[in-house]
Amino acid sequence: MKVAVVGATGLVGSEILTVLAERNFPVTALIPVASERSKGKEIEFKGNKYKVVTPAEAIALHPDVALFSAGGETSTEYAPQFAEAGITVVDNSSAWRMDPTKKLVVPEVNGEVLSAADKIIANPNCSTIQMVVVLQPLHAKYKIKRVVVSTYQSVTGTGVKAVNQLMDERAGKDGEKAYPYQIDLNVIPHIDVFQDNGYTKEEMKMIKETNKIMGDDSIRVTATTVRIPVMGGHSEAVNIEFENDFDLAEVRQLLGEQEGVIVIDDPANLQYPMPKDAHGKDEVLVGRIRRDESQDKTLNLWVVADNLRKGAATNAVQIAELLLKKGLI
Question: Which residues are listed for phosphate binding in this entry (predicted)?
């Protein structure tokens, strides 16, 4: 497979290269792509060096698949050009997620929706991906009525500038700021821009994307997204109200059998998922599984995943793997 990675010099782009190598995706030719200012830089992949090219140059090389992680503006401009050239695009930005003509895919949840006609496929928001992987088997069994989620999101979700801000603040140094406030020793209840309804764009992404991926607009979702001074992964406190009652042992069994999920739930021995446990892993970790004693048929979960892996790079590569398996690329 000829594979282009658009945004290859960024945090997620670098992670895509790592995941492609680790999962032994059959890359016969790698085309690292970035902006004009990065043209000619060298990227290493599986011991070989490749020169970064521009999007126009990449299209001329006609890769089989292009994994985009270069921001919404780049995706809006170039993804259609790649698609028109017959190249299948898996896009990690928010540009196409809510476009009714584009599929929004988490392979373990709705991979069956992919078809040969899909030339631009959207990779969901990181915090949505890890949540729906856990929701899917529970919805199939008990039917979800409502989800209340609060997130605790890593600075890596913002990018290199945010990581640098955190480390500068820890070291007592001045530097470029990604956030309007200090992030070290602080919590910022604000991710992305505020909307007219008082929610942030990140919160609205979680709400709308969950319905689209799960193919069920009857699931009511409300979210509060928060940035915290950690690296390694995003954490979520998820409260789920079902139409039908559940058995906790069965819930643990269903989650344990779900592809891409690892249950870590042993409070007696202080075993529960944390961002440091998720770092570098492709799986979604779930624990603190318990009934909500304030309301019938309602469950509490704690869900953790590496936002650069399953929340971005791994999910994109898994989509490409599924396309290949189905003979769509």
Answer: 97
